[in-house]
């Protein structure tokens, strides 16, 4: 096989891959396989096209993040779920949760789509130690592709449930 044939085959494969939509599902319309597959929308697309579906309320946001829950000021325990959308490079972002003295939790999250689209995310913050103050701050951020610095920071303050705080003696 010469170089020209290899390049043509590679180009054909790329064109075929580009034609496949990432939200398309193909279902065979015949058990015998005699008919071509019928294209159907995924549940996610059906829900977004449903006029009765309501967008969640944004409780905090900026140019890169929309947080739906929990709202700032919510009382949280040793773990809580954060839901929202992100419009970040390669769908990747990070978070840290601090009590003013210590980092209690941190991690990396992937949204289901990268920028320029808004991708859905959901992650659980689980404290690695007891807080030493009555409030904590969750900061979600994108890491700069240029230098790794934290950009598009969004900070939300939460109150710890009674009995969770550990006082240092």
TrEMBL record:
Tree of life domain: Bacteria
Sequence ranges assigned to domain Bacterial spore germination immunoglobulin-like in this UniProt record: 66-149
InterPro entries per UniProt: Gmad2_Ig-like_dom (IPR018911)
Compositional bias annotation for Polar residues: 43-53
Keywords (A to Z) from UniProt: Signal
Pfam families listed in its UniProt record: Gmad2
Name of this chain's protein: Gmad2 immunoglobulin-like domain-containing protein
Naturally occurring in which organism (per UniProt): Paenibacillus lignilyticus
């Amino acid at each position: 096989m010469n170089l020209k044939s290899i390049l043509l085959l590679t180009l054909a494969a790329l064109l075929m891959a580009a034609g496949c939509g990432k939200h398309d599902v193909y279902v065979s319309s015949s058990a015998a396989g005699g008919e071509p597959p019928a294209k159907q929308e995924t549940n996610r697309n059906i829900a977004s096209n449903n006029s009765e579906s309501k967008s969640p309320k944004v409780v905090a946001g900026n140019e890169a993040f929309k947080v739906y829950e929990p709202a700032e000021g919510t009382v949280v325990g040793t773990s809580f779920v954060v839901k929202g959308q992100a419009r970040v490079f390669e769908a990747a972002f990070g978070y840290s949760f601090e009590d003013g003295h210590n980092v209690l939790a941190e991690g990396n999250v992937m949204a289901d789509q990268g920028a320029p689209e808004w991708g859905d995310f959901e992650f659980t913050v689980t404290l690695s130690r007891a807080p030493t103050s009555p409030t904590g701050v969750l900061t979600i951020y994108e890491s700069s592709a240029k230098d790794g610095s934290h950009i598009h920071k969004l900070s939300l303050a939460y109150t710890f449930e009674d009995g969770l705080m550990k006082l240092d003696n």
